[in-house]
Inverse folding.
């Protein structure tokens, strides 16, 4: 079966080596500077971090199906720990875009490691590990867009603080306070804008993947049907899965699409993303 290609992939068209300086930007600790990636690995490679990979995938509560197929269709952004890494990576893409297009960073260079680390650990509050639950008293996991309550946010914050205590006690209190304010949406500076833009763009990309696979599989239900020079054979997804993929795209584009256009006015990478994916964003509207 010939797959319908996506016109542009931000990661495939970016030299990852160009992002490494941002991902490895230092964060000051009481023992000296440590790179954002090294700090991220403390949690990610721990038993608590590894346990997050066994938790339900993003979108799975409402639109879940076979876990292997979900990753194949939607990418690793739906895996809880990989989603965090992707948020940090998209933060690096935003920073790289500003340097490449505008010739300067939108923040002080000493804050690069902090904002990248924020993306890399932003969903630690969704850990449901038994040790964390025993310590905090309650956990909530991943909650679908629009359904999170104030009580859920309190639980997430409590879990994050437990994570900070376990893995990041050597970070200065003011650094942890800044990270927490960004994640909790209490920060009103460009730090929060960058974090939200990164999160928004990668979620939009997941929705676009859903749209692409949905179309491929939908037309594959009609053997021999030719569409835009592509001949599809037998579908590899059940009709209910194809329907779920369409719903994922619809939900993402309805809730996220307008934000992508908004961030395109602020960040060069978001502008590039919007222009390259314009046909999908128009479909979303």
């Amino acid at each position: 079966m010939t797959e319908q290609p996506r016109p542009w992939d931000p990661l495939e068209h970016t030299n990852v080596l160009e992002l490494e300086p941002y991902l490895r930007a230092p964060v000051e600790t009481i023992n000296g500077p440590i790179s954002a990636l090294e700090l991220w690995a403390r949690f990610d490679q721990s038993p608590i971090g590894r346990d997050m990979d066994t938790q339900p995938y993003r979108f799975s509560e409402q639109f879940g199906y076979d876990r292997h197929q979900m990753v194949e269709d939607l990418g690793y952004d739906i895996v809880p720990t990989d989603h965090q890494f992707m948020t940090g990576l998209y933060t690096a893409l935003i920073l790289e875009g500003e340097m490449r297009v505008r010739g300067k960073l939108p923040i002080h260079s000493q804050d690069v490691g902090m904002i990248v680390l924020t993306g890399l650990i932003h969903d630690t509050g969704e850990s449901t590990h038994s040790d964390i639950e025993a310590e905090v008293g309650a956990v909530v996991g991943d909650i679908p867009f629009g359904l999170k309550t104030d009580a859920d946010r309190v639980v997430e914050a409590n879990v994050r603080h437990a994570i900070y205590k376990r893995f990041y006690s050597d970070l200065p209190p003011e650094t942890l306070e800044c990270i927490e304010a960004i994640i909790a949406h209490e920060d009103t500076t460009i730090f929060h804008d960058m974090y939200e833009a990164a999160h928004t763009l990668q979620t939009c990309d997941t929705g676009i993947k859903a749209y692409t696979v949905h179309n491929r599989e939908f037309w594959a239900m009609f053997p021999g049907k030719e569409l835009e020079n592509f001949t599809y054979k037998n579908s590899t997804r059940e009709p209910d899965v194809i329907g779920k993929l369409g719903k994922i795209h619809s939900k993402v584009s309805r809730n996220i699409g307008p934000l992508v256009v908004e961030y395109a006015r602020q960040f060069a990478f978001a502008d590039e993303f919007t222009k390259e994916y314009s046909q999908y964003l128009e479909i979303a509207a």
Q: What stands out?
A: The beta strands are 26-29, 32-35, 226-227, 230-231.
